[in-house]
């Protein structure tokens, strides 16, 4: 599932990285969350390679959930429309799930990269993060069994920047068995309209989500 909102400059590369996956039996769904730019024109280059759905703008969580509702597969993966997958991401993670029926989800490493259109000043500002590799227990680096995803529940559509923390926290609560691959499976683009940049003044939301997670943990293990 690729949710997108006004990402005409990036969504083509995201879709291309999904289409290029070595795993042949892949269902690709793009949910356009009410874009007002030329996103649909860009997606026209890939006509026939994915299912397209449009909805009124409701946020990334709602767009991801809409993609899940449309999907008919037993395994789910997510990619933000400004980011990229490694060509062997799905194939590598599927191998783990097929060989290990007790595993619910597989994550992998993420590498951050500075978007090439940025000014020299922006590139200098982001230089400390450019090329950084880290473990990524987040949706874009995940492949999960549908049954496990449904145990956790969908993404919280009330949230903007706390979506990942909230969902991962609920996955921990449910005791999902996961594997973290040591290989890079996902590339996170650094640019001027990253969600954390646009909504930088709303970081308190993430803190509220963490407090709720800790409160749930304390209630179970006082």
Describe the structure.
The protein is 36% helix and 21% strand. By secondary structure, it is α/β, with parallel strands linked by helices. It has one domain (2-220): Spore Coat Polysaccharide Biosynthesis Protein SpsA, Chain A (Alpha-Beta Complex), CATH 3.90.550. The strands form 2 sheets. Strands 4, 5, 6, 7, 8 and 9 form a 6-stranded mixed beta sheet that branches. Strand 2 (29-32), helix 2 (39-43) and strand 3 form a beta-alpha-beta unit. Helix 7 (163-173) packs parallel to helix 9 (204-220). Residues 197-201 have low confidence and may be disordered.
Order of helices and strands: EHEHEHEEHEHEEHHEHH
> Radius of gyration, Cα only, in angstroms?
17 Å
Under the CATH scheme, which architecture would be assigned? Alpha-Beta Complex
Query: Any idea of the CATH class?
Result: Alpha Beta
Strand content: 15-25%
Q: Show unreliable segments.
A: 197-201
Strand-pairing-aware structural class? alpha/beta
At a glance:
By secondary structure, the protein is of the alpha/beta class. It is built from nine helices and nine strands. It has a single domain (2-220), classed as Spore Coat Polysaccharide Biosynthesis Protein SpsA, Chain A (Alpha-Beta Complex).
Feature tags:
222 residues; alpha/beta; Spore Coat Polysaccharide Biosynthesis Protein SpsA, Chain A; six-stranded mixed sheet; three-stranded parallel sheet; 9 helices; 36% helix; globular
Give the helix/strand layout.
Elements: E1 2-4, H1 11-19, E2 29-32, H2 39-43, E3 51-54, H3 60-70, E4 75-77, E5 84-85, H4 89-99, E6 105-114, H5 120-125, E7 133-136, E8 143-145, H6 146-152, H7 163-173, E9 178-190, H8 195-198, H9 204-220
Parallel strand pairs: 1-2, 2-3, 6-9
Antiparallel strand pairs: 4-8, 5-9, 6-7, 6-8
């Amino acid at each position: 599932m690729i949710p997108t909102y006004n990402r005409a400059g990036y969504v083509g590369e995201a879709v291309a990285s999904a289409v290029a996956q070595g795993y042949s039996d892949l269902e690709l769904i793009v949910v356009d969350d009410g874009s007002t730019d030329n996103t649909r024109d860009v997606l026209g280059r890939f006509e026939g390679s994915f299912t397209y759905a449009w909805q009124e703008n409701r946020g990334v969580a709602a767009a991801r959930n809409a993609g899940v509702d449309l999907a008919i597969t037993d395994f789910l993966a997510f990619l933000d429309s400004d980011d990229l997958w490694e060509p062997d991401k799905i194939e590598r993670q599927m191998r783990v799930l097929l060989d290990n029926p007790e595993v619910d989800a597989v994550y992998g490493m993420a590498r951050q990269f500075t978007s090439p259109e940025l000014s020299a000043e922006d590139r200098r500002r982001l230089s400390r993060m450019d090329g950084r590799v880290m473990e990524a227990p987040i949706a874009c680096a995940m492949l999960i069994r549908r049954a496990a995803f449904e145990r956790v529940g969908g993404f919280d559509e009330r949230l903007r920047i706390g979506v990942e923390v909230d969902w991962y926290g609920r996955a921990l609560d449910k005791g999902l068995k996961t594997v973290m691959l040591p290989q890079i499976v996902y590339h996170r683009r650094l640019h001027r309209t990253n969600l954390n940049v646009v909504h930088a003044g709303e970081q308190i939301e993430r803190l509220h989500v963490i407090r709720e997670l800790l409160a749930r943990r304390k209630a179970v293990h006082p």
